[in-house]
Specification:
metal-binding (chains A, B); 44% helix; Rossmann fold; 2 domains; 3-dehydroquinate synthase activity (chains A, B); two-stranded antiparallel ribbon; homodimer; EC 4.2.3.4 (chains A, B); 7-stranded mixed sheet; DHQS/DOIS_N (chains A, B); Dehydroquinate synthase-like, alpha domain
Chain lengths: 360, 360
């Protein structure tokens, strides 16, 4: 087991990474809890829920709330239902919520914990590769029909327990989605990790376990380091949005779930790299990245998206202020920079990207 | 104008108290805002909304969202609608929300601000006496059908602007409701204020303006002092719950709006005083307080409440943990103490209180 500590204004917390940690949850908690609510989804529940339940051996009351798997569950209605369930089961301010699952479960259950009686303890137990990113840093939220993560909060977990065995059962599409965030961390902060991944990965189906653990640990370290500097997303944390401005717009425009989050971000990074080359007149490893995207079977043809819809959506992105579109670009590898772009400037580049680049 | 500074972990903020401050809002803000959303209710909107809108003279976009007056508006549906309205109007992370109204507006608009894009600036402009209390300290929330303020957060405003002219138009029932919290502050922290109010107030209809300003300023000072010591309600802030355990239960059992919040708390304090005398074998000014309640026309006959319902509701109160009922009692004036009581102990005292004391 490897442990990384994340220091935030409110408290520091450990991120434990290792195999079989779900069987040891009880010993990894910061204190004893009499009542525990595990929130998970229909997929993860079938696989690991019993292991976690049985890890509680001291007679704690353990309740379970299962949401339908998928981004669609990250809505106000599920939020309300979990609150109601918690009240019915008598959860109080000393109770614990466990988010067992991917980003959707983590964001939703975390936001419930953040607002239940004005905030109770919760821990993240990510079970996807994508969630190596979302489980660290305390961003919790639900979606609004008009935009992703529009209603939420910053609320740090008490502990993150990342059992690497739980990602072994992931469908390949989930692995692919998650690796987009790993590559993102590499682009903005670790060129060695970037070239290692671009060169050594052969397919999403068979990733060398050593390489995987190295990549995830580095990803969490990079994320933690940034969160520590800027917990409330007012400075360097924006860099983590690399690829996300177009990515979020694509997810919203195509309907959540058509592309996975990571697939959308992978395309968003591709676009951001091209914009970066254009704006800063530099050269970035766009071709090796394109080659990697193809080799790894990322969906690159996004069909008939409406250019103006994407522009509008990019403007409503939480990171945008005053109607301009803010994107994270790279002045070089490991050198991200937030840039404000005018509609027209972006429209042209996006038109070329969609009608040229993406249909190659 | 008098200014009290409240220091919290996140930031310090001023509470401005004085006459005509609504005309000077712009100059009292911490910085310029391009977009402003004023949330108010149908009563307050008719009276003071235009004054506040016209106080913005620099071409800011000022939007208005009006909720129906009353506790019923503090629900998840209004919460969602204000979010939608904000997104439609293009509010971004640099925008400001103004809560213009009483506690309902402040709690609801504050919780929207706390969660809009994970938190934007807001200011409180209380227009009731009750809100002298609720506008300071950053407790924001909405109600759940199973309990008051069950979904919420701690999120401090950037400024509180308390225009004493806005309370001159209050219906007497609102004045009465608000004075319960003033008396509460006196019981837990200022015996001189307590005896001044008990002795010098003749009716709720005609309160000496000097006495009113003195009482409100002291109330805010007491509240601020407690919030600074315990922002997240884990210690001394519990003392502010004096009278609220039974108060909340009464509001919920009778249906929100049957009794005002303050009327319910006034009864709750009466009960808490009797329990205090009983538990600590001491003597408190219960009779002068009863006499004051009657002179001030507080509703003291609460009809056919169900004892067991009240007990159950007191157990679901956010302050309760592990099924016991926690109440704030007084070991003496200015000496509050949180005490855990067993069902049975409380049931007996509550039975006597309801069937004896309350029908005198």
């Amino acid at each position: 087991m490897k442990t990384i500590t994340v220091g935030t204004d409110d408290h520091s917390y450990p991120v434990h990474i290792g195999k079989g940690l779900r069987f040891r949850v009880e010993s990894l908690l910061p204190r004893d809890y009499q009542k525990v609510l595990i929130v998970t989804d229909s997929n993860v529940g079938n696989l690991y829920l019993n292991d976690v339940i049985h890890a509680f051996t001291k007679g704690q009351q353990v309740h379970v709330y299962i949401i339908p798997a998928g981004e669609q569950s990250k809505n106000l209605s599920e939020f309300e239902h979990i609150h109601t369930f918690g009240i019915e089961k008598g959860l109080d301010r000393k109770s614990l919520i466990i988010a067992l699952g991917g980003g959707v479960v983590g964001d939703l259950a975390g936001f419930v914990a953040a607002t239940y009686m004005r905030g109770i303890d919760y821990i993240q137990m990510p079970t996807t590769i994508l969630a190596h990113d979302s489980s660290v840093g305390g961003k919790v939220a639900i979606n609004h029909p008009r935009g992703k993560n529009m209603i939420g909060q910053f609320y740090q977990p008490k502990t993150v327990i990342y059992d690497l065995e739980t990602i072994e059962s992931l469908p390949v599409r989930e692995v692919r989605s998650g690796f987009a965030e790993v590559i993102k961390h590499a682009f903005i902060a670790d060129r060695q990790l970037l070239f290692t991944l671009l060169q050594e990965m052969e397919s999403m189906e068979h990733i060398d376990p050593g390489l995987l653990q190295y990549a995830l640990t580095r990803g969490i370290e990079i994320k933690s380091h940034i969160v520590e500097q800027d917990e409330r997303d007012q400075g360097v944390r924006h860099f983590l949005n690399f690829g996300h401005t177009l990515g979020h717009a694509l997810e919203s425009e195509l309907g959540y779930g058509t592309l996975t989050h990571g697939e959308a971000v992978a395309i968003g990074m591709w676009f951001a790299l091209k914009v970066s080359e254009n704006i800063f007149s530099i050269s970035l490893p766009v071709k090796p990245y394109e080659y990697w995207l193809q080799k790894m079977d990322y969906p690159l043809n996004i069909g008939n998206v409406k250019l103006e819809h994407l522009i509008d959506l990019m403007k409503t992105d939480k990171k945008s202020t005053g109607g301009q579109i803010r994107m994270v670009l790279l002045k070089d590898l490991e050198l991200p920079k937030v840039v404000s772009l005018h509609d027209e400037e972006l429209r042209q580049m996006l038109r070329i990207f969609i009608h040229g680049g993406m249909k190659e």
